[in-house]
Amino acid sequence: MRRVALLLLVAAASGAFAACDDGTPETSPEAGGPIVLTYWTSQNPQERAWAEVLVERWNAEHPDIQVEAQPIPAGQSSEEVLLAAVVAGTTPDLCSNIWPGVLNDFIRAGGVLALDEMPGFDSLMAARTPSELADRFVSADGHVYQLPWKTNPILMIYNVDLFEGAGVTRPPRTYSEYLAAAERVTGDTDGDGQTDRWMSARDIRPIWWQRYFDVYPLYLAASGGQTFFDVDGDLAIDEDALREVYGFFQTLYQRGHLPLSTLQGNAFAQRRIASEFTGPWTAAWLVENAPDLRFDFAPVPVPDGFDGEPVTYGDYKNIAVFSSTQHPEAAWAFARYLVSPEADRLLIETTRQIPIRAGLLDDPALADFFEANPFMRRFAEQAPHTRGVDAVPSLTEVLDAVAQSYERAIYGVETPAEAVASADERIRVIQEWAH
Prior knowledge:
By secondary structure, the protein is α/β, with parallel strands linked by helices.
């Protein structure tokens, strides 16, 4: 029922969207003129710069297929903008900001093409995508509607100087080690009686996507990579792992190692926090805006006694060709260009984000880059050990249930066990409504 309501809401919003010409692909070239493709990028400045370079190169080399790049129109989220465009029939030819969690909505609406039916798809996937990740991009009907593009593994960034100054000699691996480091780092640095330095900081408001940077990556690590749902779409939360995560954060907040209020500005760059859970985009920003800050990355902490390969959230973004295109072959050709070796090297150098490409660390063309940016090696090493989100109906509502139960645990309204149980119950109701 909520799914129907969402689609009706999007359909209503799409009326205004359809009236806007900015997002409509130019697919009717004059006789004898070139094919013109519209390509939507994210609004991330580094990604836009990457796209502009590639589009300029492509257009110079392909006078018969010209590409116009533009950022996704502004909206509450890029997913809502794209879904509205699908419903209104105003999608671009292709887009490189596809979140797997919303792909099923596009498929149900008939908005995207099955890329595995395109020429050269199998050889491209075999050559580029790590074998341990390839199956995660196959939809329930057996087709592939997204071309794996990039991943941003969530790791723990830490301030090397703050850790060393507090006597923390290595990045904490377990919850106990993290709590011990937090005891050393957290404190009052100016003597006014108020804590002004913390181990970390998070936005604990019940905002579903915020949980991708605390609860979800630590849950994946604690569960050994078990996502919330199984391959059949049935709820499969490892409740023991989720209780561990809730309990870990509850303890951190109760001991004052994380502030309950939201800190203004970039608290890590300001040296007000010693660590946080984030992706490689933070490194790109810090290199440019805080060049004197010494930092490094390590896997997110795991429960005491955990023995296994650290897994984290991969934050995948992929490429899709929309069914509204009048030139699917041309759009597919450009999509393949966006994941060429040259494009992937430019991506990691320009954006500090990780292409979903096998053998990155063995690429001679990137040897100098990894030597100059050793922290990026951590992300490249972590990339094969990542998970995405489950492509299930009402995923945002599911994550909202997790966010609300997490907030109750943080404030002590519920114990971790009670919070996990209430989240489980609400998710089951959401899934019943969605079906």
